[in-house]
């Protein structure tokens, strides 16, 4: 219903309805508060306007009233706070088995790499009804990946990954905006989110010229000679990377961290920062030697050798099999 | 609700702060807080119209979706400099440095501020900062946004960020010194009998403001120095390529810049708290709640900065804490609104121009404050942050609230400042035009923001569906511009042609009305002794009221 209303944004994700519900609740609550204040001010101003012979009646104040109009708004505020927090937790917590897409932002474009190997610029194709998790980083300044129709937004920072997720509910084309001012062509850093039916999406995702991201990562891994130390058969001079992703890692300084995407990224670019217990600080930094895309490929590769064999979702290997059978029809 | 009383022309020229000395040096070297207030008034008005001119160009560019009026880089400089000029060179000094400077000593019954020379120094620092800012704008300008987020400002922009930073850094000291002066004056220089609980609430508001100026401003100064160091010396502080953290910058920046919003709005609240009792002829409802809510805003205002950063990459749990605290800081503002409203109850209300501005303030501040509840709600914030919803919200507070309060105060105290009356009809008309123009400009931006239009977009040809609302907004801006020009014209006019004002044309409470209009150099002919509570309108109205009854 709201989608036909020209003053309301489209609702195209599972989160959109939840954000809108809270928004409508707030419109009603704040509308009532504003109406109350305005009505009282206008009524008092008219009713108690200066008239000859009538003096103002002095009233010092009232503790009971002060408490009433403190406690009632506070209780309302707490309802809004709690409701907002619940929605926010959903917005910020990607489901575990979401399809992963890497996003690299730069002045002034969005570069997108799907795990299956498809690459796009200023466009993102996603299937309807499936959780999609964006793993994002910036090559230069801060950007922000904003899809109004999905009610999601997340700043994209240089030097680390930030994550955003959604589940599209309606096929169509939606706006993608950069929402953090990033220089001259900030307003040109816009694009389209294309939501496809699952079948169309499968056809599209498998039509790309590139192999899976993790395959590219494996090549980079070999070319850079990572495998001379990070061996998978015997214990090398660096930690064995099989099964490392998503698991706790004990560090030299006694801390334990979870090996998430940001940890892998940091360990490639700044190996000394969180060194694994029992290993010497011999790994060189790859800061400046790798493009953001290559870092993403390496991370995708390390994740692929950590994850369990193909399950329900499209894994890298499944994608490469279907790629052989692709029919070449590209759905835009 | 007649015109303020007019006194016949005085037979001989009384000595006032205005006619005691003449000549340029008697102004440029003055240590009289009232003259310094006028120096500030002229300077901030100048910057207000520069910032307003930028705003007009921004609105004209957004009239059509395509970027056709100016270049993208020019547009980016326009909104950057609009923000920097309006925030640092108009809004922050606006009420404190003009009305505050003029009134704080008089309201507490003092001859001057505690440190008159430091007061003059603060104006010079402001002017030096302002000249550097002007030089920066005239020789290329800066395009970082007034928030100058790193690493864009530190390592990417090729515009004159360092110069703009120096300008803000220096102007910041003027703000600190003004705050220092007020704190010491309010503590040490109150007249006999002027206890804390008898202080006008304008003073409480300025006390709270001064605390923020003293504690907050150094942080933004340090932040600017750090960014400049990174930019000039490539020290790794904020840039991840050098081992820094860009989110740290945002923490430091907002640690000042959120409380800075309260530097702008608290004095306006103070103004409104003087106007409403006067034109309702009533003591303020809940004096101590209004007073303490100012202090609560100053304290809690320091604890909510990260609500500007809910999508910036902070943890979910810290977002939770800052969302909660943001609702905590909303409460004292709500309490003020309720107390102002209750003050009207059973009053004897006149609709003179200052009161119309106060009503306008109430309406706009209420909308602005309530829209803050949307932004503090985490789930909604993700969608509307960095959109026009935020732009609308803070303009409702900082223009709808602060500027409306400032204009209300200017009208209320203009007879005291200038000794002249402005034309009441024009003043009421201007109040109405400002109110209508303001709402027409900024209300559509709430809708635009929820539709998803990001701020700082120079070209929206990708989403032409946003044009109708933008046209409305631009139309409103032209109306608003007229509304802001009018008072400047008739205030200037009144200085020459206005009727002379009596010492207390509104029959208002407060020590500033017990001295002449305009006041003598040392404010009072003899030191006042206060034996009454603030807002004693009952006593003020008693004798003439009795006469009125017999006449009727």
In short:
The complex is a heterodimer of chains A (332) and B (552). Chain A is α+β, with helices and mostly antiparallel strands and 332 residues long.
What is the CATH topology assignment of the largest domain in chain A? Answer: Cytochrome Bc1 Complex, Chain D, domain 2
Q: What would you call the structural class of chain B?
A: mainly alpha
Cα gyration radius of chain A (Å): 27 Å
What is the total tally of β strands of chain B? 0
Description:
The complex is a heterodimer of chains A (332) and B (552). Chain A has 332 residues and is α+β, with helices and mostly antiparallel strands. Chain A has helices spanning 14-47, 63-92, 198-205, 213-223, 261-269, 292-304, 316-324, and strands at 99-106, 109-114, 119-121, 123-127, 131-138, 143-147, 152-156, 162-167, 172-178, 191-196, 248-250, 256-258. In chain A, the strands form 3 sheets. A 5-stranded mixed sheet of chain A has the order 3-2-1-5-8, with helices on one face. With 552 residues, chain B is an all-alpha fold. Helix content of chain B is 68%, strand content 0%. Chain B has 16 helices and no strands. At the A-B interface, helix 1, helix 2, strand 7 and strand 9 of A face helix 3, helix 8, helix 9, helix 10 and helix 11 of B.
């Amino acid at each position: 219903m709201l989608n036909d209303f020209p003053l309301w944004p489209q609702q195209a994700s599972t989160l959109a309805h939840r954000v809108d519900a809270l928004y409508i609740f707030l419109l009603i609550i704040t509308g009532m508060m504003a109406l109350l204040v305005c009505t009282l001010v206008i009524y008092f101003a008219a009713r108690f306007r200066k008239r000859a012979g009538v003096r103002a009646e002095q009233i010092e104040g009232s503790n009971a009233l002060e408490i009433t109009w403190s406690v009632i708004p506070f209780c309302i505020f707490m309802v809004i706070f709690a409701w907002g927090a619940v929605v926010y937790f959903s917005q910020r917590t990607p489901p575990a088995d979401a399809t992963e897409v890497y996003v690299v932002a730069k002045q002034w474009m969005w570069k997108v790499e799907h795990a299956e190997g498809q690459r796009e610029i200023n466009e993102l194709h996603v299937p309807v009804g499936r959780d999609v998790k964006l793993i994002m980083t910036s090559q230069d300044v801060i950007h922000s990946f904003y899809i109004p129709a999905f009610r999601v937004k997340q700043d994209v920072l240089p030097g680390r990954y930030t994550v955003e997720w959604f589940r599209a509910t309606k096929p169509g084309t939606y706006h993608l905006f950069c929402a953090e001012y990033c220089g001259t062509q900030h307003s040109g850093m816009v694009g389209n989110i294309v939501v496809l039916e699952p079948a169309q999406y499968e056809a599209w995702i498998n039509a790309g010229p590139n192999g899976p991201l993790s395959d590219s990562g494996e090549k980079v891994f070999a070319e850079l000679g990572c495998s001379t130390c990070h061996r998978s058969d015997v214990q090398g001079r660096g930690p064995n990377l099989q099964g490392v992703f998503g698991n706790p890692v004990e560090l030299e300084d006694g801390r334990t961290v979870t090996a998430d995407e940001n940890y892998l990224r940091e360990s490639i670019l700044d190996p000394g920062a969180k060194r694994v217990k029992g290993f010497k600080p011999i790994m060189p930094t790859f800061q400046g030697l790798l493009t953001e895309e290559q870092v993403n490929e390496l991370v995708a590769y390390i994740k692929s050798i950590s994850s369990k064999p193909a399950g329900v979702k499209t894994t890298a290997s499944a994608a490469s099999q279907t790629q052989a059978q692709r029919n070449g029809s590209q759905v835009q | 609700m007649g015109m303020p009383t007019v006194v016949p022309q005085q037979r001989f020229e009384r000595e006032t702060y205005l006619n005691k000395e003449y000549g340029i040096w008697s102004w440029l070297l003055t240590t009289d807080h009232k003259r310094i207030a006028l120096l500030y008034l002229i300077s901030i008005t100048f910057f207000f119209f520069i910032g307003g001119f930028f705003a007009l160009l921004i609105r004209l560019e957004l009239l059509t979706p395509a970027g056709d009026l100016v270049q993208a880089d020019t547009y980016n400089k326009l909104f950057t400099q609009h923000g920097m000029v309006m925030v640092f060179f108009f809004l922050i000094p606006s009420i404190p440095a003009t009305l505050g400077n003029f009134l704080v000593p008089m309201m507490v019954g003092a001859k001057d501020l505690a440190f008159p020379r430091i007061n003059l120094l603060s104006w010079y620092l402001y002017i030096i900062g302002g000249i550097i800012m002007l030089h920066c704008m005239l020789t290329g300008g800066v395009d970082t946004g007034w928030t100058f987020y790193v690493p864009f400002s530190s390592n990417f922009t090729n515009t004159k960020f360092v110069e703009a930073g120096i300008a803000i850094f220096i102007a910041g000291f003027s703000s600190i010194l003004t705050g220092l002066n007020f704190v010491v004056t309010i503590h040490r220089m109150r007249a006999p009998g002027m206890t804390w609980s008898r202080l006008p609430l304008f003073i409480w508001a300025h006390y709270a403001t001064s605390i923020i100026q003293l504690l907050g401003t150094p942080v933004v100064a340090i932040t600017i120095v750090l960014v400049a160091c990174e930019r000039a010396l490539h020290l790794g502080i904020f840039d991840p390529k050098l081992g820094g953290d860009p989110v740290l910058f945002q923490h430091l920046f907002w640690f000042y810049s959120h409380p800075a919003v309260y530097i702008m709005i608290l004095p306006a609240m103070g103004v409104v708290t003087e106007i409403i009792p006067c034109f309702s002829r009533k003591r303020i409802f809940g004096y101590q709640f209004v007073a303490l809510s100012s202090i609560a805003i100053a304290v809690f205002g320091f604890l909510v900065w990260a609500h500007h950063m809910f999508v910036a990459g902070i943890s979910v749990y810290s977002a939770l804490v800052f969302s909660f605290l943001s609702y905590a800081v909303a409460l004292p503002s709500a309490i003020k609104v309720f107390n102002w409203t209750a003050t009207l109850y059973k009053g004897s209300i006149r609709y003179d121009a200052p009161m119309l501005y106060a009503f306008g303030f109430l309406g706009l501040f209420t909308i602005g404050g309530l829209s803050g509840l949307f932004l503090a709600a985490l789930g909604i914030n993700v969608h509307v942050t960095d959109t026009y919803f935020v732009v609308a919200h803070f303009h409702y507070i900082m223009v709808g609230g602060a500027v409306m309060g400032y204009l209300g105060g200017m009208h209320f105290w203009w007879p005291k400042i200038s000794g002249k009356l402005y034309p009441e009809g024009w003043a009421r008309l201007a109040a109405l035009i400002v109110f209508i123009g303001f709402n027409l400009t900024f209300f559509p931006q709430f809708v635009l923001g929820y539709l998803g239009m990001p701020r700082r977009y120079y070209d929206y040809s990708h989403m032409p569906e946003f044009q109708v609302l933008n046209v409305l907004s631009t139309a409103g801006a032209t109306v608003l511009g007229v509304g802001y020009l009018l008072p400047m014209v008739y205030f200037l006019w009144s200085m020459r042609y206005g009727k002379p004002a009596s010492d207390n044309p509104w029959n208002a409470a407060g020590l500033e009305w017990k001295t002449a209009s305009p006041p003598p150099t040392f404010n009072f002919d003899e030191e006042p002794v206060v034996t009454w509570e603030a807002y004693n309108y009952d006593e003020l109205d008693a004798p003439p009221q009795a006469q009125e009854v017999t006449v009727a």
